[in-house]
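Annex B.
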Amino acid sequence: MKSKLLAASGVVAVAAAALTGCSAGDAAESCTNEIVNPDATQVSVWAWYPAFEEVVDLFNQNHDDVQICWTNAGQGNDEYTKFSTAIESGSGAPDVIMLEAEVLSSFSIRDALVDLSEYGAAEVKDDYTEGAWKDVSSGDAVYAIPVDGGPMGMLYRKDILDQYGIPVPTTWDEFAAAAKTLKDAGAPGVLADFPPNGRAYTQALFAQAGSVPFDYDNAKPGEIGIDVADQGSKDALSFWADLADQGLVAVDEAFTADYNTMLVDGTYAIYVAAAWGPGYLQGLEGTDENAVWQAAPVPQWDASNPVQINWGGSTFAVTSQAKDPEAAAVVAKEVFGTEEAWKIGIEQAALFPLWKPILESDYFRDLEYPFFGGQQINKDVFLDAAAGYAGFTFSPFQNYAYDQLQQEVTAVVVDGSKDASTALDDLQATLETYATEQGFELK
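Extracellular solute-binding protein: predicted structure tokens.
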């Protein structure tokens, strides 16, 4: 059975294209960074972090016995496809790879990742929040070291809300009322967008309403529990579908050129975002010169019982093809293990750190952001969101699950061909069928 699971549960289809970048066989020839100590053990790394070359240079300057050979092998699924090819062929993977937390189970089930509990992961566990550590572990196994996260908040156009006398919403009921006020006032835009291709964003909103979609333990890879048709998810999707049906929110697909323009030109007064959202906004062109941006906590279903949620987050994992797993583990644990490295990540790449020595520092807490008028958005919003995030369990076929979720959400908020309850019941049936066809036993 396991061979069937391993073949079926890849995060993406295996690509036919040849591998590019830094691999176990060509590390010396393909490093995009300088090797300071050529006699030291070289560890090949795939990563797409912005400003990462400076972090790599810093690591290499500070390590005599281990050196990083870094290549950007593509972002997200582009990199994952290359990694899948290497897994299938048995060679060509890097020693260390940047992976989003949501895909760790999809690769660990294929025996593609090293259990870092055997290489000192316990030594650094206390340097991370409980939720961040849960995202990279399963039972006693640890499949990656956390790097950055996406605790969620709300970025809003203060000038627009003030113009229409709208208080900053703290609950979703207030959010809906604000959306109606804005429309009734004849505003040229809408309060916010609910992107049908939100995937992880949508799942985070469902989680805030109580969704626990998967029960999975890498120690028992043949078993999975699926519960995507829970009442909380149905209520949350119904809420957004109702707003969309009334024209109170847009349903534009996220991360298109048009979407990026509307984020910054005033079409959307609110951007419900992860902690990397401020950096994303600042990198867009066409910002309204009169815009006044501020940050606030994400709205809650019950203000007296706030639930913090997370959207995104990346890690460093050691691959099963690593030439020297011990040296590779040093890289995974230590490349973002200094304040100096993290100041590069924060100030030049807008990363939100999960490493507690910098996460809990006065420097990060009190950091002022000129884009937000000098607001200390970490102290005001994102630190509490990160501290309250309890972690999440992803499925070993998360990409497939997200694809199906996107189809059902589109059917509800764009096509209007299904209601929320029917759509999520259909999603439950689809995922159960898929899981059993791939050899999983349903809990």
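The longest strand covers residues 145-157. The chain has two domains: 2-150+310-383, 152-309+393-442. Further annotation is deferred to the next reporting cycle.
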